[in-house]
Design brief:
- This protein has 527 residues and is an alpha+beta fold.
- Among the domains are: 83 residues, no CATH class; 61 residues, no CATH class.
- Helices cover 48% and strands 9% of the residues.
- Strands 4-5-6-7 form a four-stranded antiparallel β-sheet, with no helix packed on it. Strands 3-2-8 form a three-stranded antiparallel β-sheet. It has a two-stranded antiparallel sheet with strand order 1-11.
- The longest helix has 40 residues.
- The protein is extended.
């Protein structure tokens, strides 16, 4: 009630009543006029929503203005919070593992060649590709193979929101190919100082009239390092997104989890759960410390003979704060002597906390839901039934496949196409019409990428299911081999032929029909 209402009530109750009636009628009228979301989530009159502060802005304002803080906190969680570290590494391991493997699948019918010629061409390309991708020469810094760069690129994009790959051409002795890949952390792509006023640059990304990237501004040093070390003068390089003459990609922007149209940069994967994970980490640390304190059995003795205190005759435990000789510290089975007039009160922390596990489990379920990572996989704890555990794995693999497809389309395939262009230009790979027609080039560049398999809770059931899919023509042997083993069927088949021939020659497979009988066939014959 306002001061004016209180005054009217005391000096003019009749007018106060009219004011109150008018207020009631006005509220009723507003309630009648309210419609749609104004009566629900958009209501500004409900007490439950009065404290909800929100503001609308474009994607750049909502994300880029907070991006530096989000990155710093995301990296801090990755370095010091086990749940955050485990979540990101679990995604990295299942999506990439040791690296996605190239499997060329050219459109030989469109190219007018036979299947046998296509098979031989694909084998030659894989052999040449491994000369470049299987060594550290593909890395501009000569530290990582191509598979290891995939792992780093995915992990960095999840921690920081995005990562960049520059594709310079660097000639080196002993290297057949000159294409290199240089990974650039997202922090280094930032606004140059001074910032040109005649160009649309934000967060280091320069865009054109349609919002397409024109160039990227990359700092020589990390901005944080340059700020701390005043002796370092940072400089920026403007790298065009595409070559002006050839149209070749100079920079690959690996940005995932786009939320809104017009977005130039992305927030870290952990952004929605940063506060939750930090609070969970603090709670875990507090419980751990309480358990440690509770486990310390320390006896405090008050001495009546200050001239010969007990502390001098009983060995102390190792002192943590060695700079303060008068400090009292808990220890394992320690006996601490107190001086004259000193006393101590022991607080019982009451640990272990029986509610700890249930609370952490509940929080982990929410974190897993936000990251599309089932709780069982997040903490690597499978205690449910086979069906429930398999359902959790299948749900997680929807996300893993999505991120694998993203990595393939934005990183692996573009780099493979650049490498293949160099291989054809140098005459190491024969691909007629490669540079004359874009459609022909696309036919030569077509490829698939295989990575870690889904894993099997019951290998026999998974193998039988794969057999049924192949026999009913729902899938191919090549795809099933890749899903179950991570290997190409083109590699498995000739080895299997060789093995079976050696078994026959050695007399180990005398009864071929019996050796190839499948489980359950006997029951089918009996019926």
């Amino acid at each position: 009630m306002s001061i004016l209402d209180k005054l009217y009530r005391s000096v003019n109750p009749e007018k106060a009543l009219r004011r109150e009636m008018a207020r009631v009628k006005l509220n009723a009228l507003q309630s009648v006029q309210a419609s749609g979301y104004d009566r629900h989530g958009a209501s500004k009159r409900k007490k439950s929503l009065l404290g909800w502060i929100s503001k609308g802005a474009d994607a750049d304002a909502d994300i880029i203005e907070n991006l530096e803080t989000l990155r710093e906190r995301s990296r801090d969680l990755f370095m010091g919070t086990p749940i955050a570290t485990g979540a990101l590494k679990t995604i990295r391991t299942n999506v990439v593992g040791s690296g996605l493997k190239l499997n060329p699948t050219i459109d030989y019918e469109y190219l007018g060649i036979t299947e046998q010629v296509a098979d031989q061409w694909e084998k030659d390309v894989e052999r040449e590709w491994n000369l470049w991708a299987g060594t550290q020469d593909c890395d501009a810094a000569r530290l990582l193979t191509f598979g290891q760069m995939q792992s780093l690129a995915l992990l960095s994009s999840m921690i920081n929101g995005d990562v960049f790959a520059v594709l310079p051409v660097v000639q080196r002795k002993g290297s057949i190919y000159d294409l290199r890949v240089s990974l650039v952390e997202g922090d280094r792509v930032c606004d140059p100082k001074p910032k040109p006023k005649d160009k649309d640059i934000l967060a280091g990304v320069e865009v054109g009239d349609w919002g397409e990237p024109i160039a990227y501004h990359i700092a020589k040093y990390h901005p944080g390092t340059a700020d701390m070390k005043k002796s370092i003068k940072n400089t920026w390089s403007r790298i065009p997104a595409f070559g002006e003459i050839t149209g070749r990609r100079n920079v690959l922007h690996l940005i995932q989890d786009l939320e809104r149209p017009g977005q130039r940069r992305a927030a870290p994967l952990l952004s929605p759960v940063i506060e939750t994970l930090k609070q969970l980490g603090r709670y875990t640390d507090a419980e751990l410390m309480a358990a440690v304190v509770s486990g310390m059995f320390t006896v405090f003795v008050k001495s009546n003979t200050p001239d010969t205190p007990l502390g001098e005759s009983v060995p102390f435990h190792e002192q943590v704060d060695s700079d303060d000789p008068d400090s009292y510290e808990l220890g394992n089975g320690a006996i601490v002597g107190l001086g004259e007039g000193e006393d101590v009160t022991i607080a019982n922390p009451g640990r272990a906390n029986t509610a700890f596990d249930g609370f952490v489990t509940s929080i982990c379920r929410q974190v897993g839901a936000a990251l599309e990572l089932p709780y069982e996989l997040l903490i690597k704890h499978f205690t449910a039934s086979y069906s429930a555990s398999r359902a959790a794995l299948l749900e997680a693999w929807k996300m893993f496949r999505m991120r694998r497809t993203w990595l393939t389309q934005t990183f692996c395939q573009p780099i493979y196409e650049e490498w293949l262009s160099e291989a054809v230009a140098k005459g190491r790979i024969d691909a007629p019409g490669f540079f004359e027609d874009e459609a022909v080039r696309a036919a030569w560049c077509r490829a698939e990428w295989y990575g870690p398999t889904q894993g099997q809770l019951d290998p026999l059931k998974e193998a039988n299911a794969a057999r049924v899919r192949v026999e009913e023509e729902f899938s191919t042997r090549e795809r099933e081999a890749a899903e179950l083993t991570g290997m190409s069927w083109e590699i498995i088949h000739p080895v299997r032929v060789k093995e079976e021939q050696k078994r026959r020659d050695g007399g180990l497979a005398e009864n071929l029909n019996q050796a190839t009988t499948r489980p359950g066939d006997e029951n089918e014959d009996e019926s």
